[in-house]
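for the writeup, i need someone to sanity check this before i put it in the appendix. the sequnce is what the collaborator sent (i think, or maybe the updated version? ugh). structure was predicted straight from it, no edits. if anything looks off just tell me and ill rerun, i have time this weekend
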Amino acid sequence: MGKLNQIDKAAASKGKGVETFWQFIKFIVVSLGAFVIQTCLPYLIKLPMSEEFLQRPYEFWIYSSAAAEKAGMATTGLGLFIALTASNILAQVFSFFVNKEKTFNSAANTKVVFPIYIIFTVALIAFSAWLQPKLVDVLMPKIGQASLAVSGAICGAIQFFLYFPVDKILFHKKKEEFANAVEAASEKTEEIKEDVADAAEEIKEEAAEAIDDVKEDAAEVKEEVSEAAEEAKEEAAEVIEDVKEEATEAVEEIKEAADEITE
């Protein structure tokens, strides 16, 4: 597959036209693989079915064994119809995943595009089942039994040429583009992480500076409070000393007065 990737890149480098042509070549190869599945698988699916079930008449929606008989497919009973339809669906599922991964190298969301693809497939199969008997009616008078092969080829060609543009639309998102987007998102995430880390570091530094400023202010306040307390202590001591002196003088005066009275 490494060689295929190299060819894919070489075709992409030549421009959109060459890239689309190379995708069409790969699409043809995948379609051949789907054709093999659609052709061979019915034989395996119908093995456990009884002959009665294989030939059982059926009629629902736009499908009926009567219309198949009218188109010249007299052996198309319910069992064979189920085998053919199941094989067709499985072949288209095979085409879906191989074309998505290898033909278009797409990173499209499978959960989104696969249901759209299935709806388109069912609609196209229903259209072909309706169209082929109509073509047989038109071509039978002109080319006889060859109308069966021609009508089948026309329906197959319509399916083939409709699937390619539909697939190209569904699978337009390339793996490389998706990988580049993921890488860009990863780089952006790393940038955001770095910015957040830088901002956190700046906040940490500012917080540390603010804490230091608070500590300095607290130390200054403590020093001022200590000085104020010391001043208050000195003033209190002076007041107490003055009170003592005044009390001593008062006592002396009282003592002298008492002595005078005693005399």
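The longest helix spans residues 175-262. The helical segments are 2-13, 16-45, 51-55, 65-70, 78-103, 110-143, 146-170, 175-262.
thx in advance!!
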